[in-house]
Amino acid sequence: MAPSSTPVSLPALPDGFLPALKRIVGDRGLLTKAEGILPHVTEQRGRFVGATACVVKPGTTGEVAQVIKLCQDHDIAIVPQGGNTGLVSAGIAFAEDRAIILNLSRMNKVRNLDPLNNTMTVEAGCILQNIQEAAAKADRFFPLSLGSEGSCQIGGNIASNAGGINVIRYGNTRALVLGLEVVTADGEIWDGLRSLRKDNTGYDLKQLFIGSEGTLGVITAAVLKLFPAMKERSTAFIGLRQLDDAPPLLGLAQSLIGEALNSFELIPRIALDFALKHGQDITDPLGQPYDWYILLEASAGTPQANLPLLFESFLEQALEAGLIHDAALAQNTAQADSFWRLRENITLCQKAEGGSIKHDIAVPLSAIPAFISKANAAVESYLPGIRPYPFGHIGDGNIHYNLSQPPGMDINDYLAHWDRLNRIVHDIVVDMGGSISAEHGIGRVKLEENLHYKSPLEIRMMQQIKQSLDPKNLMNPGKLLPVSPRS
Ligand code: 2HG
Ligand code: ZN
């Protein structure tokens, strides 16, 4: 079920709490006025608006620890927040949480970059794009890449185990983190900033915090893995013969292009149409309408790989095998960028077509075509006129199965179908052995759905971990797990 979207007035904070916060973070680290708070409680689609009495912005790990201790002393809950670009409202405080927001944006330093060790130590509030650029300056590459990279923060990427467009080659954020610094729910600082590729000394605690959505502690810094800078990239925009051909096409690409393949993204005709209609500076790379497209990219750290030759041979064989209708191979960086601009506009341009109900699903890659046709049939028979908008990381078996409202329908009438449509789609996903949240996490938006589908044993083990690390349930309550009474 969707969280409430109406701000409600909050219970007053205990006497002396705000002055104590101000003593820790100073004037510029504390927002208490409605206009300053509003962007921090509004999720990026503008659909959910939460409420909080203040937003605190510590400048150091020591300040984070002091803020958390103060909250512990007064039983005040904390919602850690990065760039507030998430899609499941994990970084927003809702009125019922009675929480303050702890925003990490002032902690934005690169603490260290070690090109020989291929690591970089960054604070949680660093913007992802700044990290990519700092790595590039040192002739290195940090592969995490997503549409919001100009504003999302690495702490949020780690807390949500973000995916993005390079997962097929480099894995999710989880695979890119070597060490973490975390302020625990008690306000202690855990220095786990190890720059090691091998450390087999017990439970891998950092993995517990990665993807925990701020429910176990606050990530304040991380050691990230770097890779050799990419010297060569090849990008192709392909018109598929039919959706069923996407999995064998990926197989062919993997056998001919090998590990240089980093992206394999699905784009339906409807997304291209919306992008051409609402986006800026968007062109149709093929000029001919096809039902499904693949945007594929490979890159290499050395020019010897001769990617253009590999690509040409791949495209020839794909044509010969009848898997594709047509393809455009980017001739230069500007053309490759224009293919990606189209991909990056998909979410924004869907917004221009009215209400969208999103599903971020994974099924085994080979089952994606069957999933899309089953789900389309089910939602179209439930709500005639609905516009399925399935796109995304098909190479990872992950599709954003978004549903645009029937044209002309009132948006609120459409959104009234939210829960029912979620259940129709997710039943099919789970029946096919899939996941109801492949990369966006659970947050508040998918809480009930996750409880419905996850086994009681898994939920119980998660609750036991939560209870042992945050016994007072002050860290992001009501996200990922249901609120248990505060003890
Ligand atoms: C993407 O892959 C993002 O573009 C956003 O994960 C997905 O809008 C969405 O549902
Ligand atoms: Zn995505």
TrEMBL record:
Residues 48-229 form the FAD-binding PCMH-type domain. It comes from the Bacteria. It holds the Pfam family FAD_binding_4. InterPro entries: FAD-bd_oxidored_4_C (IPR004113), FAD-bd_PCMH (IPR016166), FAD-bd_PCMH-like_sf (IPR036318), FAD-bd_PCMH_sub1 (IPR016167), FAD-bd_PCMH_sub2 (IPR016169), FAD-linked_Oxase-like_C (IPR016164), FAD-oxidored/transferase_4 (IPR051264), Oxid_FAD_bind_N (IPR006094). Keywords: FAD, Flavoprotein. Belongs to the FAD-binding oxidoreductase/transferase type 4 family. This is FAD-binding oxidoreductase. It comes from Kiloniella laminariae.
